[in-house]
Amino acid sequence: MRKTDEQLRKTDEKVNKLTDSWGRFVEGMVSPSAEEFMREKGLSEISVHRRLNVSKNGKNAEYDTLVVSQDKKVVLLVSAKTHAGSRDVDDLLEDMRNFDFFMGEDSKGYTLWGAIAGMTFGEGLEKYAKRKGLILFKVSGEVMTVEEPKKLREIKIGMRRGK
After folding, report:
1. Do 65 and 31 contact (CB within 8 A), yes or no?
2. Inter-CA distances, 19 with 51, 125, 138, Å
3. What is the value of pTM for the model shown?
4. Which residues does 112 contact at the CB level (< 8 Å), separation at least 6?
5. pLDDT category, 138, cuts 50, 70, 90?
6. 33: helix, coil or strand?
7. Rounded to whole angstroms, how far apart are CA atoms 58 and 41?
8. DSSP label of 107
């Protein structure tokens, strides 16, 4: 029985590590897009904060990504998910309601926007999120850019040296 418990514990650790890695991947993908979104809205003096943990009066909050425009006093709170569902929308709305409690004086006078970022979305999620007034960041089109070096390393396949 102990051996089974140990195997389950190790499996849980591996799953949690994998889930955390995917979460970091999605957060990494959304940060540049969220910053660009803010710039396109005419906002500047932008800072991006990832994985922000806040504690106050024995309560905790974790924010995946905060994009802050100092000059226009706007905060974009982004919840990043590998697969976003309706519960994630509800959780984000709750985070938005509690944002003032956790951020207090630091956010006084700011306008808060909410966004869901996901690799995939559950059925009806996009419509539900938009109906709730949330921004969506979706994977589409150009996900990666290509940068080529000035001198490309080339290897001739099947050409052995000395022959």
Report:
1. yes
2. 15, 21, 19
3. 0.74
4. 74, 75, 77, 96, 99
5. confident
6. helix
7. 37
8. G
Q: How far apart are CA 37 and CA 129, in angstroms?
A: 17
Architecture of domain 2-138: 3-Layer(aba) Sandwich (3.40)
Which pLDDT band, with edges at 50, 70 and 90, does 58 fall under?
very high
Burial status of residue 60 (CB atoms within 10 A of its CB: 0-12, 13-18, 19 or more) = exposed
CB 48 within 8 A of CB 69: no
Instruction: Give the whole-angstrom CA distance, residue 160 versus residue 36.
Output: 48
What's the token pair of residue 54?
A: 């806040």
Q: Could you tell me which residues are beta bridge partners of residue 121?
A: 84
- How far apart CA 128 and CA 14 sit, in angstroms, is 33
Q: Give the pair of three-digit tokens for residue 64.
A: 């995946």
Question: Is 33 in contact with 80 (CB distance < 8 Å)?
Answer: no
Structure tokens at 5: 């418990």
Are 43 and 69 in contact, with CB atoms under 8 Å apart? yes
CA atoms of 59 and 8, how far apart (whole Å): 30
Question: Which amino acid would we find at residue 118?
Answer: G
Q: Alpha-carbon distance 44 to 35, whole Å?
A: 9
List Cβ neighbours of 100 (8 Å cut-off, separation of 6 or more): 107
